[in-house]
Amino acid sequence: MAADVGASRIRVGLFDESLRLLKVRVSETPRENPVEGIPRRLREMVVEVVGGSLDSVRGVGVASIGLIDHRRGMITHAPNIPGRDVRLFKELSNIMEAEYFLLNDCNAAALGEWWPRRRETDSLTYITISTGIGGGVVDKGRLVLGKDGNAVEIGHIVIDPSGYMRCGCGGVGHWEAYCSGANLPRYVKRLLEDGVLPSGTRLGREAEARGLTSERIYRLYYEGDEAASKLFERLRDLYSSGIASVINSFDPEILVIGGSIALGNKGFFSEEVYPRLGKYLVGEPPKIDEPIHGEHAPLYGAALTVHEDIEDARVREP
Ligand SMILES: [Zn+2]
């Protein structure tokens, strides 16, 4: 049994002993009072997906947005969820005796993506470039988790010490504050206001009239908008320097890059971002691969915590 708790959606999946996904349900993440709402929704969804007796469930592994405290089974604080200390397992543990496991969603995704490649390598790094930017690392066949389970929060590496942009976490100059899906429109707006980008083209006019989404910004670049072209000269280096910093930190054999921005703009990344990595790399580049499990990668990782009884992810006080 596995779940993936995201800022906008919760997924619950039922897996069999050979790790096949038998059934999956998706529901919106409760926005009102999430401290009570998320544990309750999780319990309801698990009960619905199991369908019969809860005694048949060996364990529940959860992949969650963070920050987390994996020993206590809680989200301590997440930039996109109001409230603190969401005790994910408090409702489930009232109705079922089971083993509980918790990983940060990107660490879970790294595990989920490494598993089908485990005969090929024991060193894999995962990066998602999506609403936010996150990552996970498997090294020598073991997840790198840090003291509370929040290691490899790569969206918050500092790529600009001048601090031009403030991140959703409150820090300044963080990578995802510039080029994640949620933050790219804010970065563009600021560049237009400061006159760094010319405001007379469609990019500027649309930003003024109705605001921009990341998808629209990419579209305008593909259509040859002059200001968007100037913007993407910056973005190429923001993406490639960030990715290279992650490679320099962990020296993976395989680097899996997923997330809606990277997968929705494959041509841009393979032709304009990856070829620039060498400019920033200290060692040999890894093989770059696409995710096998797509959006279900965190769910597979969560299922693996139960399947493989991963001690590092075990919840001590559900
Ligand atoms: Zn940050």
Q: Can you characterise this structure?
A:
The chain has 318 residues and is α/β, with parallel strands linked by helices. It has two domains: 2-104 and 295-313, ATPase, nucleotide binding domain (Nucleotidyltransferase, domain 5), CATH 3.30.420.40; 111-292, Nucleotidyltransferase, domain 5, CATH 3.30.420. Helices cover 35% and strands 19% of the residues. The chain contains eleven helices and 13 strands. It has helices at residues 34-50, 92-95, 105-114, 176-179, 184-193, 202-209, 214-222, 226-250, 260-264, 266-273, 297-307; strands at residues 2-5, 9-15, 21-28, 59-64, 68-69, 74-75, 86-87, 99-104, 123-129, 133-139, 142-143, 254-258, 287-289. A five-stranded mixed beta sheet has the order 3-2-1-4-8, sandwiched between helices. A hairpin with a 2-residue loop joins strand 10 and strand 11. The radius of gyration is 20 Å and the shape is globular. Bound molecules: zinc ion. Zinc ion binds next to loops. Zinc ion is lined by residues 156, 167, 169, 171, 174.
